[in-house]
Write a structure and sequence with these properties.
Layout lengths: L15 H7 L2 H4 L3 H17 L5 H19 L12 H13 L12 H37 L4 E6 L2 E7 H26 L1 E2 L15 H8 L3 E2 L3 H6 L2 H27 L7 E3 L17 H24 L13 H22 L3 E3 L1 H9 L5 H10 L4 H17 L9 H7 L7 H4 L2 H6 L9 H23 L1
Parallel strand pairs: 3-4
Antiparallel strand pairs: 1-2, 5-6
Helix pairs in contact: 3-4, 3-6, 3-8, 4-5, 6-7, 6-12, 6-19, 7-10, 7-19, 10-11, 10-12, 11-12, 14-15, 15-16
Bound molecules: arginine.
Length: 466
């Protein structure tokens, strides 16, 4: 084992228990690619500014490239005693190229290095999550389009309210995931700021060209204040907030799929390949995928809360507490990625029982508002129409019938203005199509929404490919 880079002022060896407790390499080794990429850019800048020689820089860049290959092929052994990914790689570089390796850390601290690595890592992951969200949204649009004929009850208070198109209900989730995509795009603006050059906290007494390092790494901007740059984890908190909101959307969708696949609803059936069984009850077919996604929402929200609480009241600048940012960040990235991917795959495996959903839309007086609106059309003030229909509903309910199952004579007892033309308006399809308002559930409007979504997705795919 080699001495720790900071061993100079110490007269005792680190207690093994402290080593084990403080080490983070089992978690942060995931940052190796960003760490090497960041070190290469830093080293090129140092040479360009004449701070280290070109020969040393070439040796460092070459050595780092070889280390990256070793890590990728699984040959590299991370040593927990070397604390973190940064010191593991620096130590390996020394073993590989000798004294030149000791110049790499000029004008740099692990405080700005870890901020850089985390930003590089999170930027890449965010771009990848955005692409996956675009695929998920496409799956939702296709699913909605394939079920344009399906009518179902829409709910408020989980009570049947008014009939809607199943596609309209699904497109509501399209909107939520579109906002999520937007939020992640906006996160990128704050992630893409280059902190290197802030060193431990105060900047570095060398003629650094921070803009050059930033341009090598594809950053849009450099940080404006060295103390802020090494203390700031807002970008990670924002990411976790966006991830949490997205998981809340997933959990609401999951809850609906779980309800709908129950015998009580019977609206949908998940294919066998997307369901699981019970080890004791032979008849069971369980919706474990949506249930787990619903459960994982709690985890990601926990990740957000954990980092907020870690950062709350930390004095400037770097504090070791901040090492706790990575487990939660990585967990949220992994969890969200898995949920997006499994849902994208699951949509084509959902069978919708269109007769069950339509039958449900036929029972429960979902057309009562439309009967009142009809009477308004016959000159009855809305409040009076509401009261007449209410009485008709009470009568029908007492007789175990729906409004559209009453005779015209029966209806006229409550609403003398009603005529034969009323019945055509009371079918779920007519109730739906009459909501031909922008954003409404009318078939024309939902078709428009699907087409608009497809145009939006194509535009996003084109600009993301650039
Ligand atoms: N492993 C540390 C982290 O993840 C890196 C920075 C450590 N800096 C320090 N001076 N101990 O936060």
């Amino acid at each position: 084992m080699t001495d720790k880079p900071w061993a100079g002022r110490f007269t005792q060896k680190t207690d093994g228990r402290v080593e084990a407790f403080t080490s983070s390499v089992d978690v942060d080794s995931r940052l190796y690619k960003s760490d090497i990429q960041g070190s290469i850019a830093h080293c090129r800048m140092l040479a360009r500014q004449g701070i280290i020689s070109q020969d040393d820089a070439d040796a460092i860049v070459k050595g780092l490239g070889e280390i990256e290959k070793d890590i990728e092929s699984g040959r590299f052994v991370f040593d927990p005693a070397l604390e973190d990914v940064h010191m593991n790689i620096e130590n390996a570089l020394y073993e590989r190229i000798g004294p030149a390796a000791r110049k790499l850390h000029t004008a740099r601290s692990r405080n700005d290095q870890v901020a850089l690595d985390t930003r590089l890592y999170l930027g890449d992951e965010t771009v990848s999550l955005i692409r996956r969200l675009v695929c998920l949204r496409r799956a939702i649009v296709n699913f909605a389009n394939d079920h344009m004929h399906v009518v179902m009850p829409g709910y408020t208070h989980l009570q049947r309210a008014q009939p809607v198109l199943f596609a309209h209900h699904m497109m509501a989730y399209y909107e939520m995931f579109s906002r999520d995509t937007q939020r992640f795009r906006e996160c990128l603006a704050r992630i893409n700021v280059m902190p290197l050059g802030s060193a431990a906290l105060a900047g570095a007494p060398y003629p650094l060209d921070r803009e050059y390092t930033a341009s090598l790494l594809g950053f849009d901007d450099i940080s404006a204040n060295s103390m802020d740059a090494v203390s700031d984890r807002d970008f990670a908190i924002e990411f976790l907030a966006a991830a949490s909101i997205c998981m809340v959307h997933f959990s609401r969708l999951s809850e609906e799929l779980v309800l709908w696949s129950s015998s009580e609803f019977g609206f949908i059936e998940l294919s066998d390949s997307f369901s699981t069984g019970s080890s004791i009850m032979p008849q069971k077919k369980n919706p474990d995928v949506p249930e787990l996604v619903r459960g994982k929402a709690g985890r990601v929200i926990g990740d957000l809360v954990a980092l907020l609480v870690t950062m709350k009241a930390l004095p400037l600048c770097y504090n070791r507490d901040m090492q706790e940012d990575k487990p939660v960040l990585f967990d949220a990235v992994d969890t969200l990625r898995a949920c997006i991917d499994i849902y994208t795959a699951m949509f084509p495996n959902i069978k919708v029982n269109d007769t069950v959903t339509r039958d449900a839309a036929l029972r429960g007086f979902l057309n009562a508002t439309d009967m009142a609106d009809y009477l308004v059309g016959k000159g009855v003030p809305f409040r009076d129409a509401h009261a007449c229909v209410g009485r008709a509903v009470a009568f029908a309910a007492k007789n175990g019938r729906e409004l559209h199952e009453l005779s015209l004579e029966e209806i006229q007892r409550f609403a003398p203005e009603a005529d034969d033309d009323l019945f055509g308006l009371l079918t779920p399809e007519s109730v739906i199509d009459r909501r031909n308002v922008a954003g409404g559930t009318g078939r024309e409007r939902v078709m428009e929404a699907i087409e608009a979504a497809r145009r939006q997705l194509s535009d996003e795919e084109k600009s993301d490919a650039k």
